[in-house]
Design a protein that fits this description.
Blueprint (H helix, E strand, L loop, with lengths): L7 H28 L3 H19 L16 H6 L17
Length: 96
């Protein structure tokens, strides 16, 4: 698999991990900041969570490429018939 090309399942997994990790880090940061009455601590914890989330979800790690798509090469694709466009079966009404 080429580097930088994440498959569809990998994109879905990355998006889900990103959302979960950001919410968990936001909750942890809020609780810690509230407990210690420190806005600075809250921001530092959340910034660390954003950094960790970025490191886990942005690079094209191998576990995001477990379901690669199998594309036909152009020579093989020409051997198969192209799909016909759907025929609409609209009823025509006659006006008298």
């Amino acid at each position: 698999m080429r580097s930088g090309v994440m498959d569809w399942q990998g994109q879905k997994l990355s998006e889900m991990l990103m959302q979960i990790m950001l919410v968990v880090h936001a909750l942890v940061a809020f609780v810690a900041g509230y407990t210690f009455s420190s806005f600075q601590m809250m921001l530092q914890i959340f910034a660390g969570g954003v950094l960790l989330t970025t490191l886990v979800t942005v690079p094209d790690w191998p576990w995001y490429n477990r379901h690669p798509l199998k594309w036909l090469d152009p020579a093989e694709a020409e051997k198969h018939p192209k799909p016909e466009p759907p025929v609409s079966k609209k009823k025509t009404s006659k006006h008298h």
